[in-house]
Design brief:
Blueprint (H helix, E strand, L loop, with lengths): L1 H25 L24 E6 L6 E7 L1 H8 L14 E11 L8 E14 L10 E9 L4 E4 L16 H4 L16
Antiparallel strand pairs: 1-2, 2-3, 3-4, 4-5, 5-6
């Protein structure tokens, strides 16, 4: 009887350790993610505290987008880039967080507020590293609500992503005259 209780305790302890190890292993460090071609989430560490460039929506009214930029890119904007015909300097970084929206319930009027993250898009200017794509590298990481984790976006994502550091180059060619940057600095 005593031996059965000891074996049961060992079995329960082992199951508990396995479950705990599994939970720890599944906790994602988003900064360890990387897309083929080398662009890594870690290159944008601290993007959550960068200055706002603009907030916008597109043809999909269920998404709200916030574009932020690092200090290098913000200094370029303030000096007139890209409207003055000059390019963004190497080291410029942009992050765009896209949220699914929901009706805000804390105000007495209709308002859409951020809900769950849809994806996070990154751009970095590095003329040597990304010479073949106008000097810009791109990455899109889609968010999975169920696991609260990110993965590199693929061709099944909307919009489709080539899943490499040049995934945004084809789309951004229409903004070539603005150094491949769509977003204008919002007036304050």
């Amino acid at each position: 009887m005593m031996q059965s209780k000891t074996l049961l305790r060992i079995a329960i302890g082992a199951v508990t350790l396995v479950a705990l190890a599994g939970a720890l292993a599944s906790a994602q460090d988003k900064y360890s993610l990387k897309v083929p071609g080398g662009l890594a989430f870690s290159e944008f560490r601290g993007y959550e505290r960068w200055e706002v460039v603009a907030v916008h929506t597109t043809g999909d009214p269920s998404l709200l987008k916030l574009v932020v930029a690092n200090p290098v890119a913000m200094a370029a904007y303030r000096s007139g880039v890209p409207g003055n015909g000059k390019p963004f300097p190497d080291g410029s970084r942009f992050a765009k967080t896209e949220w699914k929206t929901r009706q805000g319930n804390l105000v007495p009027y209709e308002i859409k507020v951020p809900d769950s993250v849809y994806d996070i898009d990154f751009m970095v200017k590095d003329s040597k590293r990304f010479a073949g794509s106008g000097g810009w590298g791109y990455a899109v990481f889609k968010h999975d609500d169920a696991s609260d984790s990110f993965v590199p976006a693929t061709l099944s994502h909307s919009p489709p992503q080539g899943n490499d550091a040049k995934c945004g180059a084809a789309c951004h060619t229409i903004a070539k005259g603005r150094d491949f940057v769509f977003t204008e600095l919002a007036k304050r």
